[in-house]
Amino acid sequence: MGKNEKPLMIAILFLSTFLGALGQLFFKIAMGKALFMLAGFMGIGIAMYLISTVFYFYVLSKTNLSWAYSFGGLSYIFVDILALLVLNEPVSPVRWAGVLVIAAGVALIGLS
To answer: Burial code of 36-58, b = ≥16 C-beta within 10 A, e = fewer?
Structure first.
């Protein structure tokens, strides 16, 4: 991977991880819906995962696995934010501290 490609790979990894988190959100929403709505929300969640995986495969074809896989930690951040904003779930201060540690770790890996 060239130096000019790194920002693009990081952006794609962010998008891939965010889409995976959205997939989780739709799975959670589906579990609280009536049967006729369950399939729709599950389908959206599966589609998000599929798109996420395609983006991830593209990045894997261009970068080292150890570098790309480390961005998966972003999913913890995205899921906590989505759970708070969309589902109104509580996120404890200790969990926010963990999110900050994960964010710092992903940032350090991104710089490597």
So the answer is: eeeeebbebbeebbebbeebbee
Q: What is the mean pLDDT of residues 34-49?
A: 85
Q: Round the CA-based radius of gyration of the chain to a whole number and report it.
A: 15
Q: What is the pTM of this model?
A: 0.87
6 burial via Cβ count (<10 Å: 0-12, 13-18, 19+): middle
Report the pLDDT value the prediction gives residue 36, as an integer from 0 to 100. Answer: 67
pLDDT score of 1 more than 90: no
The CA distances from residue 11 to 4, 5, 19, 71, 98, in Å, are 12, 10, 12, 11, 23
* Helices (H), ranges, the chain: 6-31, 35-62, 65-69, 74-85, 93-111
Number of residues in the chain = 112
